[in-house]
Design goal:
3 helices; globular; 234 residues; 12 strands
């Protein structure tokens, strides 16, 4: 069997600093903005000439934080509450042979400054620092198949989660230049990023996460999220 060595073409700068709170699929949180920073070898405008003619791109990437942890033939998809096993090739699970994932994202623009090439993206679902191994244009006539069936993941994941900001959190958000930040945080929390087993517990639960350079703390009580505190990460 022939082996191949693949070098990243670039790396993602993402608002998601840890796996917790990353949406299960791309474009579930369209406000999530990111940059694809090209490696030095590929940081030339010729590599992306014509790419702005496309609104969306496929990113092929490496699950770099879990790739060294091996894989299993059977996994527990979050969509099934972690209670049922499916074959790894019947899922988009992280722990898989070769550790390769794919993501369809929106292209917002191309940036070239001081010899550094970058793609501006939105709707991202990738961890900060994710290595990108290839980029391909999304072709609606070929890639979109509205009549396709998607088994246990046939519908967009929805929750009844609501989100409220405390007085401190609301006052802090009002001082920030990015006015889409409240909607971004709310949409992340509406996805209910908690582990499946936590969703079965009653009573108030407290969580924390980092988005961009912000520390965010919130409480979950039933189907309600209360963002209690937001601060700048030190």
């Amino acid at each position: 069997m022939e082996n191949y060595q693949i070098e990243p073409v670039g790396f993602i700068q993402s608002p998601y600093k840890q796996k917790f709170a990353i949406p299960r699929q791309p474009r579930l949180v369209p406000e999530a903005k990111a940059k694809l920073i090209f490696s030095k070898e590929f940081s030339r405008e010729e590599f992306v000439r014509g790419i702005e003619e496309f609104t969306h791109l496929w990113l092929l990437f490496r699950f770099h934080e879990t790739a060294d942890k091996g894989y299993s033939a059977l996994v527990r998809p979050p969509r099934l509450g972690g209670n049922e096993k499916k074959g790894v090739f019947a899922t988009r699970a992280t722990f898989r042979p070769n550790g390769i994932g794919m993501s369809a994202v929106k292209l917002e623009g191309v940036e070239y400054k001081n010899g550094q090439l970058a793609l501006l993206l939105s709707g991202i679902d990738l961890l900060d620092g994710t290595p990108i191994i290839d980029i391909k244009p999304y072709l609606p006539y070929s890639d979109a198949m509205p009549q396709a069936s998607a088994g246990f993941a046939d519908t967009r994941p929805e929750t009844l989660m609501t989100v409220e900001f405390s007085e401190q959190a609301a006052e802090f958000l009002a001082t920030q230049a990015d006015k889409s930040l409240p909607e971004f945080i709310a949409n992340v929390l509406k996805q209910d990023p908690r582990p499946a087993y936590k969703k079965q517990k009653t009573g108030t639960q407290t969580y924390g996460m980092n988005l961009y350079h912000y520390n965010i703390r919130w409480q979950v009580d039933g189907e309600h999220n209360l963002v209690t505190e937001i601060s700048i990460e030190r």
